[in-house]
Amino acid sequence: MILHGYFRSTASWRVRIGLALKGLAFDQVTHDLRTGAAGAPEWVARNPQGMVPALELEDGRLLTQSLAILEWLDETRPEPPFLPAGPWQRARVRAAALVIAADTHPIQNLRILKRVEAMADAETARAWARQVIGDGLAAFEALVKEEPGPFAFGAQPTLADICLVPMLGNARRFGLDLSPFARIRAIEAAANALPAFAAARPEAQPDADG
Questions:
Q1: Where in the chain is CATH 1.20.1050.10?
Q2: Positions of the chain with pLDDT lower than 50, given as ranges
Q3: Which of 4, 13, 53, 135 falls 20 to 30 Å from 46 in CA-CA distance?
Q4: CATH number of 87-197: 1.20.1050.10, 1.20.1250.20, 3.40.190.10, 3.40.50.2000?
């Protein structure tokens, strides 16, 4: 398999975690979001959104959208599972994951921040990111506060943890104070102790440049 991504892409980071948790080997192809490489005509011809990540299968088919990729991985390689067994808890995990992936990430990604900066300035864009991420993390913290640890929903990482950890990387990059989020910080510590999460970090990627 080939992961088309970018080392600092939050969504690519999620898929790297998922692949590592499943113990799958994969190659990487970089599409540098800073230079507009993801919008290159040859890439858009294969992936109409011109975005990353995309997972290229051995037969050449291309899967897009990080949560769809993660669900496909979980359905085709069931161990270790990304979702708990019961329908109620599965829905709870998906809801927490979507707080990050659907309601927080899209409105603080690079495309949006570039537009905010163009309308105002760089510091306004950073402040926007801090506000958006802070709101999302506050909601996530409340959702999982009473759940058993050490991960968001118990003893094993789930789709919720896979979405959370990369967003914390963004939070720190934009200078968000994480001290109010004790439960989230504990989840992150548990996740980062796992080799799969460590291997997926941006600085561990072949295209990382600081």
A1: 87-197
A2: none
A3: 13
A4: 1.20.1050.10
Nearest to 7 by CA among 52, 48, 49: 52
Domain with CATH 3.40.30.10 in the chain: 2-79
Cα(198)–Cα(191) distance, integer angstroms = 8
Against a cut of 0.90, is the pTM above it?
A: yes
Distance CA 200, CA 186 (A): 19
Give residues with Cβ within 8 angstroms of 6, minimum separation 6. Answer: 12, 30, 31, 32, 33, 38, 52, 207
Structure tokens at 155: 């003893």
Distance (Å, whole) CA 169 – CA 108: 13
| Tokens 């600092």 belong to residue | 8
pLDDT of residue 210: 56
Neighbours of 98 (CB within 10 A): 16
CATH classification (class only), 2-79: alpha beta
Q: What's the pLDDT tens digit per position in 164-198?
A: 999 999 999 999 999 999 999 999 999 999 999 99
Instruction: Report pLDDT for 209.
Output: 83
- Of the candidates 4, 1, 2, 7, which has an alpha carbon nearest to the alpha carbon of residue 199? 7
